[in-house]
Amino acid sequence: MSDLTPNTSLSNEGEQVTLGPLEEYRIESLPANAYYIPNFLTPTESSTLLSHISSHPWTTLTHRRLQPHPAPLTASGHLLTSKSLPQWLDTPIVDRLLQLTFDLTRANSENKKGIFTISPHARPNHVLINEYPPGTGISPHEDGGAYFPVVCTVSLAAHIVLEVTPKRDIYSSSSSSSSSSSSSTSTTTTATLPPGNEENGNGEETVYKIYQEPRSLLITMDEMYTSHLHGISAVSADEGLSSTTVANWNLLDDDTKKTIEEGNGTVKRETVRISLTYRDVLKVKDAGRLFGGRGFK
């Protein structure tokens, strides 16, 4: 642990959340960079958020529902609104996200920055709320070029297992001497590993499993954002969970580990899980200036 003074914040009820340098939460077994923070919110803060969410209208999809705040993105990936995030989505979550900094003990000044320091708006400006009833999921996908490549996901009410796979085009072009960014290609297919790295030596796809507890925060950025797909299996129970299959095992709460072990690696999905995904949309246009002047900012 670093001997730096951690950031501490209090909820209205006096419950305390203490955050250390971001490096303390790195998921070491994953490519750069992913961080997992358990107990990012207090139980009271979680309950308050769920109450706010339930009072707002949902957009209904085939198997789940969502809420975009402060507005949905356009088909071209722009945020068209004159509004900021509502206060209940800004505090305390955005406040704490902006507190997170890289290890200040390192000599390189780049590591003194926060996760949104160099993003266009220096903070997240969009939240997508998703509802996942037991047995539902989402196909492997990437977030694409509409956002600054940092994703912060808060989980509420229930656990979920996020499955992360390398993008196929990363390996299909790996033998080429020229390198190019993979984030420009949008795909929903999973990937096979290059020769010598296959599971069981049979060319099967690699799947990194990240167990997301209620009230936790998962941050993905850099290679984990641009070079990997992420999805959630549509199952009623997550199976095969262990210290060797769960990438963030060492960062999980002890009670969670005990539950997994007592269930022989199986945890049922018995409650609706809510996710709040915080991102910085690159192009924002003020709806009030849509028909006059330059509205992008």
Tertiary shape: globular
Number of domains: 1
SSE order, as H and E?
A: EEEHEEEHHEEEEHEEHEEHEEE
Taking all Cα atoms into account, the compactness measure Rg is 19 Å
Level-2 CATH architecture: Sandwich
Region (Disordered): 170-203
Protein name: Fe2OG dioxygenase domain-containing protein
Organism: Dactylellina haptotyla (strain CBS 200.50) (Nematode-trapping fungus)
Domain Fe2OG dioxygenase: 123-282
Write the layout of secondary structure elements.
Elements: E1 7-10, E2 16-19, E3 34-37, H1 43-54, E4 59-60, E5 65-69, E6 79-80, H2 87-90, H3 93-99, E7 126-132, E8 138-141, E9 150-156, E10 160-166, H4 168-172, E11 208-212, E12 217-221, H5 223-226, E13 228-232, E14 237-238, H6 254-262, E15 267-268, E16 273-279, E17 284-285
Parallel strand pairs: 6-17
Antiparallel strand pairs: 1-2, 3-12, 4-5, 5-7, 7-16, 8-13, 9-12, 9-16, 10-11, 10-13, 14-15
Characterize the structure shown.
The protein is of the alpha+beta class and 297 residues long. It has a single domain (32-173, 186-286), classed as Jelly Rolls (Sandwich), CATH 2.60.120.590. It is built from 6 helices and 17 strands. It has helices spanning 43-54, 87-90, 93-99, 168-172, 223-226, 254-262; strands at 7-10, 16-19, 34-37, 59-60, 65-69, 79-80, 126-132, 138-141, 150-156, 160-166, 208-212, 217-221, 228-232, 237-238, 267-268, 273-279, 284-285. The strands form 5 sheets. The chain has a 7-stranded antiparallel beta sheet with strand order 3-12-9-16-7-5-4. Strand 4 and strand 5 (65-69) form a beta hairpin. The longest helix is centred in the N-terminal third of the chain and has 12 residues, at 43-54. The model is unreliable at 1-5 and 169-202 (pLDDT under 50). This is Fe2OG dioxygenase domain-containing protein. It comes from Dactylellina haptotyla (strain CBS 200.50). One of its GO terms (cellular component) is nucleus.
